[in-house]
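#data-curation
PF: Archiving a pair of folding outputs for the training set. Convention for this channel: one message per protein, sequence first, structure tokens after, nothing in between. First:
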Amino acid sequence: MDYKDDKRIVLTLDAGGTNFIFSAVQGGSEIIEPVNLSAKGNDLKIILKNIISGFKQVELKINQKPVAISFSFPGPADYKNGIIGDLENLPAFHGGVALKAMLENEFQIPVFINNDGDLFTFGEAIAGILPEISSILEKNGNIKRYNNLFGVTFGTGYGGGIVTNGNLFLGDNSAGGEINRMRNKLYPETSVEDSVSIRGIQRVFARETGTDINNCPSPKDIFEIGTGIKKGDKNAAIKSFEELAIVAGDSIANSLTLIDGLVVIGGGLSGAYPLFLQKLVEEMNNNFFTLNGNSLPRMEITAFNLENKNELKKFLENTSREISVPFSNKTVSYDPVKRIGVGISKLGTSKAASIGAYNFALDQLDR
């Protein structure tokens, strides 16, 4: 359900390894200027007091009592019970920290914590790419509709989330959609995250240019070199995003054999899609070869790049036809072309996660 007209207020938090950004959301939109506090420090008590302080500062800025707190937090975690495990970017969290119970005890309202990839995907399913594609299909006279969405984020790490028929898939161990643990096609002894991440982009660029990774440009600079905006080794820059595309495309194709839905890409690296998205989709549409030498499409469905005008036109094409019902004079509509689309976030990663957090909290309260 979309709660864009709901008057209830939910407190939110964007938890990064450097900063905690607190806000309040009503009707799916932020209603205050966010509060920014440091996430740095090795003292867990100080960090937890900062989290409490941030939410209290937000409370003072709103004119009614919030109904819940809802936010994403890095994992591993037991999200259902709000227990945070050992975190790489926040090393003070160690051995299991009961964050949900602490905040519920402090504020006396329900608290919901989820993975950032999950909430990003949920937001895009509610108010982003999923309704946008349905609207475009309708305008083009195509009766096809999509109810499943797989979201991935390219940034410091590689995250994922699954929404099916309006419901966020969480898994029994708070580990649903953890695409970062898939095998890396190019470096099989490693995970995909070693290539689909900021460090992956910089590692390839440093290797291709023979420079020290510690002196490597930022991914934004590498993208601008690759597109000719800045001077530098253009081939190395293109190669950097090409490796990301191959590894990400392979892992997304593996995921879609189970999910079968649209794909939305967010995260800090998503803005560089002109250098990687077409290659990523081509990788998804690659063929396998059977042991007797025959070619076999790696997916039962065909992927289309929704950011490419020509591919979007093919994706929107109505290929259905009427077929006869045996032993009758009736016909039924049949579309033999199975297709999905891959596009870039329509809301922006942070806004999508905020909308996801807000809607998740109200959905849980209304159950």
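PF: Second:
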Amino acid sequence: MKLKRYSLAEQAYREMLKQIISGQWQAGDKMTEESLCEHFKISRTPAREALMSLTRDGLVERQPRCGWRICSPTTEQVYELFECRRQIECLALKSAIDNIPEEKLEALKEALLSETESPKRISLQVDDDLHQLIADHCGNSYLKNILERLSRQSSPFRYFRTDSDSTEKIQQERLTLIEEMLNKNTDKALKLLSDHIAQGRKILEDRKTL
């Protein structure tokens, strides 16, 4: 895959981020600057810059003399990550619920209810878009940045839950949350969002290994 020459480090970073979040690269997977240079047809400098950006996101860690690897945190670290995200995102939703355009929530609801050959993919995309709407409309740029980083750090682990629970169950969680947000039922929406994030954490705890 050859990237455009403009902002190679940023393009490589975004492409790698997508692949980590989508599950193409998983916790513990190793990589080297050389392999990234070959994959993206870029030099070592932008490859290294992209890896450093992912390191700042908490998604990649450097191993002395062994290259890099996708972070493989302990169960306790994942618990703390999800608990922090749960509290921060509920705070953001409390501020955002009256500001999110109804047409955008309706579009997400329609996407969940539509018949498709890829319900899992659509459901995951709706989840991405819904959490981004909360971040975008919370009215605080610092809170938004913190939430987006927490979302990136926890995103690679969402596939554990996708494999553990039925698509229908997770879809219904998202649909009910969207409906309560549309109805401006703040307390119910906060409870549903909190439970939704906590459930993802619980699945990881039950697996014992990450």
